[in-house]
Amino acid sequence: MAKGLDVGTMNILSAQQDGSDTVFVQQRNSFVEIEYSDMAEQMLSRSEVLHIRKDDKVYVVGDDALNFANIFNKNTRRPMKHGILSSQEKSAIPMMKLIIEQVVGEPSYPDEKLYFSVPADPIDSELSTLYHQKTIESFLDNMGYDAEPINEGMAVIYSELADNNFTGLGISFGAGMTNVCLAYYAVPVMKFSVARGGDWVDEQAAQATGTPVDKVTSVKESDFELDFTTDVGGVEGALSIYYENLLDYVIQNVVKEVDEEDIEEGLDVPVVVTGGTSSPNGFEALFRDHLEDANIPFSISGVHHASEPLYSVARGGLVAARSDEDVDEPEEEAEAAAADE
């Protein structure tokens, strides 16, 4: 056994193998605060709603948080911002710990391999991912896992480009960041992130239309399509405008980083786009159109949208963990044989 874990700003997901199937467990990475009462806590416990009581407050965590926020006319709070633990949210660490415990469960055996995603340091911000990485690693190690970080963009390569010898450009459009990795035979040639993603799109659309951010997020996650034909002046129209701006921004930074890294011009690679922010219908076509207009100094053999964009990073972590586990097993068998001699 082994597990992969996508530690995302909007969702946290685990992946593990069950026979020939990959099983995913998911929780929304958010919480909402409500007033404590004995009756309220009894009802939450009876209904198996994930929650924590602290003093005279109850915190509803995970998937149920958005429902409670809408009922009580509150905004959800998020343990993470811009792809890493939020320094502005004092409850970030206990909430993250609870959600991660729910998503990964107990290890099947001591030191079970688990690869968890971490973003690259963003090139357009002074944010550092080190504290975030070490904190998540500590959570998982204390639970009994042998936890290893994996770059989010590289996880996309592992998940989606096995048939191309793990060679290509993987782009993960997350909520807090967008991560980019160019790999050649599973070796990263270039990796970076930008501090814009789905949250930035939602915030800009909310500001432009005077709509609460949670409402904008709900619209985006329902039946929103990038077709640019409806809702001029409304939430969906604003979302379309800022989605297009996000794609331009990411592609401009890909071109810039390729130039700075002096990538070989003879490359001919596929591009795969994934992540929850890439889910709306029309995203792949819009991305392909904008990429064709960009001056990238190597050849693109095709653009592919992951069939399950929300699950790509967790699946990539699982691939890495299983590969690492397979390497360790022969070493352990050799050590055991030597001990018997």
Quick overview of this protein structure:
This protein is about 40% helix and about 25% strand.
Beta-sheet strand percentage? 25-35%
CATH superfamily grouping of one domain: ATPase, nucleotide binding domain
**Tally of helical runs:** 10
* Main sheet strand line-up: 3-2-1-9-10
Largest sheet, strands/sense/barrel: 5 strands, mixed
Task: Please identify the structural class as seen in this structure.
Answer: alpha/beta
What is the third-level CATH name, the topology of one domain?
A: Nucleotidyltransferase, domain 5
What is the terminal separation in angstroms? 29 Å
Please state the second-level CATH architecture of one domain: 2-Layer Sandwich
Average residue-wise pLDDT:
89
Amount of helix: 40-55%
Q: Total number of β-strand segments?
A: 15
Question: Which ranges are low-confidence, i.e. pLDDT below 50, for 5 or more consecutive residues?
Answer: 332-339
Inertia-based shape: globular
